Amino acid sequence: MTGPFTLSINLVSLLAGVMLASMYFGALFRYAKRQARYIGRTYSPLQYFGLYSTKKERASFTAGLFLLVILTNYPLERLAQSYSVMAYLGQNLLIMLAAVPLMLDGIPRWMMVKLTGPRLIDTALAHLTRAVPSTFIFSGSIVGSMLTAVVSAQSNSAIFRTGLHIELIAAAGIMWIAALGRLPGARQMSTMGRVIYLFAQSLLPSFPAFVLIFSQHSYYPTFAAHIHALGISAVADQELAGGLSKVISLGILWGTSVAILLKANRYEETGADPQPLTMEDVEREFTRSERKLRDQG
């Protein structure tokens, strides 16, 4: 076993980051160039990126992707794999509560329409992003990742660990799509509904955190065998992990709830609709109706 601060580059994470960045900016460029050609206009290469995406969207996606690569690489990846419950839980929560929503918020509306357009994806998300299923998926993923068997497996298998990260990203994506109302044609929650929904996401995973905070012995042999290299005890590491998870989850989820309330208040002051019906929503509903008719006919 190499030491916790022995340089170890996660090539899978780096390659995935490069691939996602290439796909994102490549899609922005190709879509804008195709639309510009349709109307008979030409632009400089850099101008194409700004035609159908905002600077805020591009910055948000880039920040989220950069954070994801940082979180899944040295030194946090090494610590989370075999040394510290605090590093492991902190890594998972920051992936789910920071990196994923930043990337999701950076996807332009037209791109989200295309990504969720295929029937299988649209049907799955339409069911999974409802309040109850998405809550169980999100909370279950966090709690499941804290099981002793899961922690041991991710420490011993790089393939299992990569799969765990993918599952956590998918679960977080489902939750945030519901919370942010990013699925075209889906019935959106009200402002207060979103606040209550996010509060529920912060509440359910809190019970395992309390178990860690008040633990009297180590629940994770994998970490207990190596935590001494960091100069703290296994129990202290668990207690810090429980406290850190509370700070991260409550800070981000409740902070998002406040931001949603403030945004809704600004819309109310100007008389604007905070959840306007768009043409993409109407088109997606027509598409779903046509699919049902074909299935019945």
Question: What is the gist of this entry?
Answer:
The protein is mainly α. 75% of the residues lie in helices and 0% in strands. The longest helix is centred in the C-terminal third of the chain and has 37 residues, at 234-270.
What would you note in describing this structure?
With 297 residues, this protein is an all-alpha fold. The protein has one domain. It has helices at 11-38, 45-49, 55-71, 76-82, 85-105, 109-115, 119-128, 131-145, 148-156, 158-180, 191-203, 206-213, 221-224, 234-270, 279-296. The radius of gyration is 21 Å and the shape is globular. The relative contact order is 0.10. The mean pLDDT is 91. InterPro entries: Caa3_assmbl_CtaG-rel.
Distance between the termini: 62 Å
Continuous helix count: 15
**How much helicity do the residues have?**
over 70%
Main pleated-sheet profile: none
Low-confidence stretches: none
By DSSP, the count of extended strands is 0
Amount of beta strand: under 5%
Q: What is the string of SSEs from the N terminus onward?
A: HHHHHHHHHHHHHHH
The Cα radius of gyration reads 21 Å
Q: Describe the oligomeric state of these chains in a short phrase.
A: single chain
Report the principal-axis shape.
globular
> What number of domains?
1
Organism: Ferrithrix thermotolerans DSM 19514
InterPro entries: Caa3_assmbl_CtaG-rel
Subcellular location: Cell membrane
Keywords: Cell membrane, Membrane, Transmembrane, Transmembrane helix
